[in-house]
């Protein structure tokens, strides 16, 4: 777990105001009270991305929220596709071949 002070040290250009704003917008989800937040690894990585989007690219808060939402959707979809792929891999060969043929046919459209 990473404390707020640790997070700010990791990202020298960030301030408490940045982090508070991102928490208020739901972009970071620390545990604990506002005076003793701790951040999971995913929030530390997300902080780095948020700093790049706002600082390096100069995106406004609304655009950053949209980008983060799209990234979250992509991650969710990747997870779902992985589950589907594993489920298909467990099927008999004839079923896998039928699925592959159907996908190829749909891809031609």
Describe the structure.
The chain has helices spanning 4-10, 16-24, 41-56, 61-89, 93-107; strands spanning 2-3, 38-39. It has 109 residues and is mostly helical. The model has no long low-confidence stretch (mean pLDDT 93). The radius of gyration is 20 Å and the shape is elongated. The N and C termini lie far apart (49 Å). A two-stranded antiparallel ribbon has the order 1-2. Helix content is 70%, strand content 4%.
Query: Percent range for helical residues?
Result: 55-70%
H-E order: EHHEHHH
Strand content: under 5%
Most strands sheet: 2 strands, antiparallel
Could you tell me how far the N terminus lies from the C terminus, measured between alpha carbons in angstroms? 49 Å
Uncertain stretches of 5 or more adjacent residues: none
In total, how many beta strands? 2
The neighbouring-strand order within the major sheet is: 1-2
Which secondary-structure class do the elements indicate?
Answer: mainly alpha
Shape: elongated
Cα Rg: 20 Å
Overall pLDDT, averaged? 93
How many helix segments? Answer: 5
């Amino acid at each position: 777990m990473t404390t707020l002070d640790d997070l700010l040290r990791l990202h020298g250009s960030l301030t408490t105001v940045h982090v508070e704003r991102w928490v208020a917008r739901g972009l970071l989800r620390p545990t604990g009270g506002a005076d003793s937040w701790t951040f999971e690894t995913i929030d530390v990585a997300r902080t780095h991305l948020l700093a790049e989007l706002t600082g390096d690219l100069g995106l406004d808060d609304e655009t950053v929220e949209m980008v983060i939402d799209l990234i979250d959707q992509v991650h969710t979809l990747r997870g779902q596709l992985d589950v589907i792929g594993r489920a298909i891999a467990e099927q008999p060969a004839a079923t896998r071949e039928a699925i592959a043929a159907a996908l190829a046919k749909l891809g031609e459209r």
